[in-house]
Design goal:
EC number: 3.1.6.14
Pfam families: Sulfatase (PF00884)
GO biological process, one term: glycosaminoglycan metabolic process
Shape: globular
Radius of gyration: 25 Å
Number of helices: 15
Strand order of the largest sheet: 7-6-5-4-8-1-9-12-2-13
Largest sheet: 10 strands, mixed
CATH superfamily of the largest domain: Alkaline Phosphatase, subunit A
Strand content: 15-25%
Cofactor: Ca(2+)
Structural class: alpha/beta
Number of domains: 2
CATH architecture of the largest domain: 3-Layer(aba) Sandwich
CATH topology of the largest domain: Alkaline Phosphatase, subunit A
Keywords: Calcium, Hydrolase, Lysosome, Metal-binding, Signal
Distance between the termini: 77 Å
Length: 512
Amino acid sequence: MASSWIGHWRSSAGVLTICLFVTLLTCTFRCSDCANPSNIILILTDDQDIEMGGMTPMKKTKALIGDSGVTFSNAFTASPLCCPSRSSILSGKYPHNNLVRNNSISGNCSSVSWQKEAEPSAFPVYLSKMRYQTFYGGKYLNQYGSKEAGGVAHVPPGWDQWYALVGNSKYYNYTLSVNGKEEKHADSYEKDYLTDLVLNRSLHFLEERSPRYPFFMMLCPPSPHSPWTAAPQYQKSFIDVKAPRDGSFNKPGKDKHWLLRQPVNPMPNSSIEYLDNAYRSRWQTLLSVDDMVEVLVKKLDSMKELENTYIFYTSDHGYHTGQFSLPIDKRQLYEFDIRIPLLVRGPGIKPKQTLQSPVMNIDLPVTILDIAGVNLSTVNMDGQSFLPQMAPSLRNGTERPFFLVEYNGEGYTSEDPSCPKLGPGLAHCFPDCVCEDAFNNTYACVRTLKDGNLQYCEFADNESFVEVYNLTADPHQLENIVKKVDPALLQTMNQRLIKLQSCVGDSCRNIK
């Protein structure tokens, strides 16, 4: 009887042991999945447009990221200027919440205040807490590394490896902060060309990282920002290319804000020759970025990490070359300055998709944190994840019905020598008395694609100037229809704008 009982016990114990083993094995597989989150790479170019053909040179990028994943046809910046836009990407907040107004220290660009209040809650900090290994290379914020911003010793929290450019975009003769220490560079292509240097340092990071934990890399080459210095092998590329002459090129800015009414029209030949050279040079610099993407993808493939890595490709804002007779710059409310390229590949994203869902650069950090497994309810950001749009099998989500674009104009208190007749308050003036910015070039726009393809903008100036465009009927924004549109629609758009200008966090995503 006892032996029978013992035999039964052993048999039951054996079954129990097998069950426990199967359970533990299943759990182990599940845990290994959880312990192996996706890697993420964000490539952020400087001043790359989408409306004026800025992605034309990027054949490898379009094949390796866009064709292998998704291309967003309606991606926008929260502000068409470098520092406010990049600050929005880092913070996930509209400029009225991250308080970065322009590219100056007084405009809160990389200021001590920004470092104390915004950087501790920027998205890399969350990734670091999730045990991501993090790398930054290239341009950070325009005033980074200046004495007023703490010099090169300041390394923002969340970054394990830090190779940040001091100041604005350059290709040669620049200074880097390498993990808080100054590193000066000269003009040797092999040693110093910044786009290639960012790539090479990132490859070294990939080789040295621990395979136990995921990685995040943010690569910020200077291209295609001025001074438009192409790599030697590309300096004769696109030799016959000129800026496109269609749309609003060399058109007068009638019925627009006064800054758009002041350029000489038609433009003098000297201005057209200048902008053509700039357009061609911008494309030339982008060829090195295209090479960067190719080398990175091949490296990830050789490491068996490509299929577990999300790669984002985008720009901080758009650009213009001759639109409404403005020679070259950004800062304006029109599509050519506020639209940005956005291509993404990664796990769960089907190839060769083109999505029309409206997305913004304030959505980038939220989407990255969503991929990393961060609980988004704990994140104080204005953006929303677009992972549901590009990978519906992974997430459920909703599209935003409309969104905000805002800009604070810059100007000088004294008269610009190029434009004495226009008086003080202007900036970025060219010969022929054409200025690209002014103090009262301060505006806020509500843009909607779902309920009519419309843009409504208000200026903070003495005129309280308003511009309204129907982008379906007038894709190049040639006619301001504020005096023709139904007053009820104007009131609706005005109310939306008021709400957006004061929104914070969740209220930025759920305005009706």
